[in-house]
Amino acid sequence: MKLYYAPGACSLAPHIVACEAGLNLDLEKVDLGAHKTESGRDYMTINPKGYVPALEFGAGEVLTEASAVMQYLADQAPGAGLVPAQGTPERYRVLEWIGFISTELHKGFGPLWNPSTPDAVRQATIDRLRQRFAFVEESLAKGPYLAGERFTVADAYAFTILNWTKIHKVSLADYPRIRAFMDRVAARPKVQDALRQEGLLGNAA
Ligand SMILES: N[C@@H](CCC(=O)N[C@@H](CS)C(=O)NCC(=O)O)C(=O)O
């Protein structure tokens, strides 16, 4: 299996999942601006949507969308407990988190990546993100991880996206449980492995 990634992008979430699951994964970096992979391939021929992550698996199949890629990887190693079993209420709780992280947090950061976003929109974006952070903060009162006692794909995803607060200088000072969560996840040895492999240790954890 090969994961196409960009350092620190949302592709870090499936990368963490693969490390936590103990899966054998090849990595290929993508230059998102040039749509070129590290080995010189046109990335648009791999994922016509042009974004990461993309996972090559099976007989030349490519799976995209972080939420699907993470679940696929986690399902390859059920013993690792990164997603609860299909059909259980716990699985739907994790899916609920993935939906929230994808649409409210991941895409919630969208305007902050665009240098031409006007200041007022930038501020409104941060205000909305802060409302979402408040919900995460409340939820973390119930346990060390989003779905409770156990680290799941939702935590890999939330950690990856919330790490962008450093890049965009969005303060987490009002969210002590989120800060503790970020430290807790960053300290996991497999998360350290993923960060190291992406060249992020020292500025991302
Ligand atoms: N819907 C996609 C969005 C992925 C996405 O936003 N990827 C970003 C990095 S975090 C990207 O590659 N952006 C470059 C682009 O859109 O051209 C998913 O959930 O996987």
**Whole-angstrom Rg:** 17 Å
Helix and strand content put the structural class at alpha+beta
Beta-strand percent range:
5-15%
Helical fraction equals 40-55%
Give the overall silhouette.
globular
Largest sheet: 5 strands, mixed
Mean pLDDT: 97
Report the bound ligands by name, code or SMILES: glutathione
Total helices: the number is 8
What topology, given as strand order, has the largest sheet? 3-2-1-4-5
Reading the helices and strands in chain order gives EHEEEEHHHHHHH
Spans of at least 5 consecutive residues whose pLDDT stays below 50 are: none
Based on DSSP secondary structure assignment, what is the total number of beta strands? 5
Summarize the structure.
This protein is of the alpha+beta class and 205 residues long. 45% of the residues lie in helices and 10% in strands.
Describe the structure.
The chain has 205 residues and is of the alpha+beta class. It is built from 8 helices and 5 strands; from the N terminus they run E-H-E-E-E-E-H-H-H-H-H-H-H. It has a 5-stranded mixed beta sheet, covered by helices on one side. Strand 1, helix 1 and strand 2 (26-31) form a beta-alpha-beta unit. Helix 1 (12-21) packs antiparallel against helix 5. The radius of gyration is 17 Å and the shape is globular.
